[in-house]
Please model this.
Amino acid sequence: MNATIILKSDIDSSTILAYDTTNLQGYYEIIIPNKLSSFIIEITSLGFKSAILTFNDFDFKRLYVNDVSLDASETKLEEIFIKAEKAAVLVKNDTTVYNPEKFKDGSERTVEDLIGKLPGLAVKENGKITFKGKEVESVLLDGDNLFDSNYTIGTKNIDVDMVDTLEAIENYIENPLLHGIATTDAIAINLVLRKGKTDFSSTSNVGLGIENRADLNSNILGISKRLKSFATFSFNNIGVENSPYNYFSSNNFSLEDSNETDFKMDRLIDTGSLNPDLEDERTRINNNAFASLNSIFNISDRIGTKVNFDYKNDILSRNILNETNFESTENSSGFIENQSFEKKPELYNVKVGITYKLSDTELLEVDTKFKNEDIDSDIDFFINDVKQNSEVRTRFQQFKTASKYTKKVSRSSAVTSSFKYNNASLNESLFLSPDFRFDNNISSNQLVNSTIDHFKFDTNYLKSNDSYNFKLGVGYDSRKSDFESLLTEGSGVNISNNDFVFRIQNPWVEGNMNFKWYKFNFNSTLRVGYLSQFLETRAISNEKIKKNKFQFFPRFKIGYNINKKSSIDFNANYIEKSTNELYLFENPIFTSNRFAIKNKPSLENIKSLTTDIMFHYNNFVDLFQFNLGASYVTNYNNFFSLIDIDNQFIVNTREVRGISFDTFLIVTGLDKYASFMKSNVRLNVSYGINFFENIVDNSDIRENESYIGRADLNIKTGFLGIINFQNNVKYSNVLFFLNNNDRFEFSSFQNKTSFFLRPYKRLFFETSVNYFKPDIDRKEDFVFIDSELRLTTKSGDVDYSLISKNITPNKSIFSRTSVTDFSTTFYSYEIQEPYILFSVRFKI
Model:
């Protein structure tokens, strides 16, 4: 048994001057500080009585040998209860662990509601999650990546009471064989479920209201030794989006597509959209049905499978009135347009994955995906009192397969090989009656068909030790695009067509080194490739264009850890992108009833240099985060726009020119959570400056500048007992300078104040007042009032809620202003009608 030897100036002193511990034989040695003539030595050991040695007039020339025997100490304890309170946040290496109970206020229903209240974490309007300002790639369920990239299926639907703790994992690596070998910037969120409650659980909600309003959903979570499964079904017509597929946005946003940019196909023809400044739930008029099944089944200890199936069906409708004025053009003009559209998307998305552990050092992963998406849009227009009808039909089909083999060579090295193949087709059509000439006897039909075959292969060798990580890889990238378009009059007369094949082949080699020295982290990458491009046009004449060149892509990152809480990062990145097939067609293609696009094809690469510097302060003891950064992006060989305006019809001709467009951005963010008050303050500010050029209506080259500033302040209390409040303020300003002469400016302001009343645990009331001024220079402003009264049964298994939404003294029409560098548009459109909903939510 070891004993502790402590040197103090006297028995009552709390200052330890020196200390030692005995070895197994009981020997110890204490060095007495100079000029200390009187002191005590205290000997303690668990289970024994302490002993005190007192020294007066100590002689430094003498050797003191003291043998001490300790008597056993016996204490009889009747009973001891030790209760340790969980910390709100605990940081363990690369993992930050949150205790949700420290941050809940009773208003949370789903995991997404909780995440938005945790310090360091934030949820964007599209459902994406960020941690310390960086986007989260995966959300895990007890360590398993059940949802893949479509993690909002889980965060928007899993009951918050199912979660015991939440972990934010930095440098996340899913492949277990690469732990301690590979480096990554990936971030994952792990939901640790409550034990004993997750063998099987179900949460269902039935909400019915006036004006035939409905909000129905059911979620089932099942977990066994080999199976983990989550299924959800929902239907609503109150503007809510429970899926990761948002067809209300301008680009038909999908969380999955945003993470697969290499295989994404962009649409040309507009299917009808509106991005309002209000929340989508206020303006989305829908009939939304969504079903999803996500399952992991481990067939054996070596073989595992994963299945994800999504189905989405929606009917979106909208009435819009807009008045557009074109400024600084040769012939200033404008138009008034009234449109009524109905958009019907339908989606099937199936993914199947297999993991096979060939041995303790070998892993094979195979993933296959099939996606089918149909969008039908019918739009009726009145443009300057002339009626026009538009029918848009699109079909997207995708088959993608990927396999990855990993061999762990040693504890510090591994080899990976991956193969990806993607085949996709996109068929688009636009029928206009009458067409852009507004002759009642003439209609037109625009067809666009494109297919892509994309093949990627790479092999990498990875090596690491305590101070560095190294990766050397070789790969090959091949892409073939077939593109056809045809514009005909109603009689079948050909007006315009495009037909070409575009091929890209790119073998490459890449080296990456990541190492640490003192407080510095260095990461450098160099990729060298040989790009071969081949374009064959077949519309008018059979022309073939080839272009080959070497490419060099250097990337460099340096980080300096000021201390355990503060760091500075600097990044520099240079890339060259080959052109996209959407910039290679020469003859015009109608993208809507008022817009057409054509190009002057070029195989010149788009070059971009990005530099940024960021300061981070992350103190999870005091729950305070602060970020301040700046970035500068210069793009060279940009697509230059020549915009031709003829009354209400616009033609944009794009061509590559050796000019640079520059962007400068400053961002700052602050997040402070006061534990003793359970209150939070968040502030995010950004300011961007853009420099670009274009030509409008045969003008000279216009040198344009835009200045965009945004601020978002959120304050929430949790310390007042039965009553608390939250206030969110948003301000944005957009300013254009054209040719250092003309000036256009637009500003908006929004304030949302919420009050929370909880007289006792099972009763909760929330009301919010939303004030919105979409254009500070106009008189219009809008007020919306939302409320919810919720009663929970004693068992906690049933909630009864009375919900009112969009109660407003204004009409059910919202107005806003949109400004570009050549036009100003004033919009008016419908919002969701006010409604009252009675909802019952029950758990099994």
